[in-house]
Design a protein that fits this description.
Elements: E1 7-13, E2 18-24, E3 30-38, E4 46-51, E5 56-61, H1 67-79, E6 87-94, E7 104-105, H2 108-116, H3 125-138, E8 143-148, H4 158-161, H5 167-171, H6 181-195, H7 197-200, E9 203-209, E10 213-219, E11 222-226, H8 247-256, H9 261-271, H10 273-278, H11 284-290, H12 295-319, E12 324-328, H13 329-334, H14 336-343, H15 355-359, E13 373-376, H16 381-414
């Protein structure tokens, strides 16, 4: 039984933003408000909130030179809301969770573990740890839960995880983990609702295409392979991330350009991808508008689509065929021309779009009776965080109640 008048707060920290949402706890979670703090550490940092029930929107400019200041601002704002006192638990998206296969209650041991691996993903983990510690300090007594992006991919076979480097690195945890797991878990839930359990257990490729982009290959509802690897910088080309690179490129940049490791990490995460190739923008919408007059923009868009085709082709081989292809994320959901270019020429593997459906952004965009069903499903990571957090909260409540009953029973026996 879900507790009445109880809320869940979710936090999704990115490389320069914090997304958040409040839900009323119930079997079907009810959104109360959602928002974001964007451009943290940059000029014109903005705080945006949408009140779902009252259909109200608020936006203001704030001073947040770092994640500490952004988190403090969010906490102080949150404590002024009527819904704050009803918060029972807070769910945090944690990008890297190594071998954790599900959400976990955040305690001192888990925080120590996250600090130990913070160098695995310096773009996300340090900020996420800082946010977690601030919320634990400022919201004592509230259950805090870590929801790991890597958990979804722990089902990958061993051969899909190991890297072709000396085995001592593997023992140290240097392997392929995969990311965007919360998004993929949500998409699989929606796919079951839309198409049924049988189709959701088929051979599926999920494409989460946004500023960060990745693909995952699934069979029997489990992740078999994914494009991102040891960090979210690997895989296909993204907004500002390079994706997979020849290791010799790193050697050249460090040896011939005098670049140190910190500079190289910043380059592949913040100066590469669509931005690096176009020399103009990391925004796909901007590049599509410029591609007819700017060859650099045209190259960036073409390379993005070309790489996605290669990943789809390789995953079809891994899965030994394909039944369903799903597009999601900001680009996947809203750019029909990108979906069209990615699927162009893939009729030989059964992928064929109905261009009218595609241009209208319908949920199913493949031709009628096509061999491969192609779908567009909007993702919702915040809702998935809330679901995982609710499940863990209810488990802990049942466990605690069971412990109390056991103690009472033993006490009665003694009497």
């Amino acid at each position: 039984m879900y507790p009445e008048n109880s809320n869940i707060f979710t936090i999704n920290g990115g490389s320069s933003s914090i997304k958040f949402a409040m839900y009323e706890m119930a079997k079907t979670l009810k959104p109360i408000f959602s928002g974001s703090i964007n451009r943290i550490g940059l000029k014109n940092t903005s705080f945006n909130v949408t009140n779902v029930n009252q259909d109200e929107k608020m936006s203001l400019e704030v001073y947040c030179p770092g994640f500490y200041e952004a988190a403090i601002f969010l906490i102080l704002w949150l404590k002024r809301q009527n819904s704050f006192d009803r918060i029972k638990c807070i769910g945090h998206r944690v990008v890297h969770g190594m071998e954790h296969s599900r959400a976990e209650v955040i305690d001192a041991t888990l925080i120590k573990e996250l600090k130990r691996i913070r160098n695995y993903d310096p773009e996300h983990l340090p900020a996420e740890i800082e946010i977690i510690e601030l919320f634990k300090y400022r919201c004592p007594g509230v259950l805090q839960v870590a929801c790991f992006d890597t958990a979804f991919h722990t089902t990958m076979p061993r051969i899909a995880k190991i890297l072709p480097i000396p085995r001592r690195f593997d023992r140290a945890g240097v392997q392929r983990y995969g990311f965007h797991g919360l998004s993929y878990a949500f998409l699989m839930e929606k796919l079951k609702e839309i198409a049924g359990a049988d189709e959701a257990n088929g051979r599926i490729i999920l494409a989460h295409l946004g500023n960060g982009a990745s693909l995952a290959a699934l069979k029997d509802g489990k992740s078999m392979d994914t494009s991102m690897g040891f960090t979210p910088a690997g895989g296909c080309m993204m907004g500002t991330r390079s994706g997979d690179l020849d290791p010799g490129v790193a050697w050249y940049m460090m040896n011939c350009e005098g670049m140190n490791t910190k500079q190289f990490n910043h380059l592949i995460n913040n100066e590469a991808g669509l931005l690096g190739v176009s020399e103009t923008s990391a925004d796909m919408q901007d590049l599509l508008q410029m591609e007819s007059s700017d060859v650099r923009a045209a190259d960036a868009v073409a390379l993005f689509c070309y790489q996605l085709k290669k990943w789809i082709g390789s995953f079809i081989t891994v899965l030994e065929g394909l039944d369903t292809l799903v597009f999601s994320g900001g680009i996947g959901e809203n750019a029909p021309i990108i979906r069209s270019r990615v699927c162009e020429g893939l009729r030989f593997v059964g992928i064929e779009l109905d261009e009218d459906r595609n241009n209208q952004n319908q949920s199913e965009i493949s031709i009628e009776g096509g061999k491969v069903k192609v779908l567009v499903i909007p993702t919702n990571e915040e809702l998935m965080i809330a679901k995982c957090t609710t499940d863990l909260y209810m488990e802990s409540k049942i466990k605690n109640n069971g412990s109390k009953i056991s103690k009472t029973w033993k006490s009665n026996i003694v009497k």
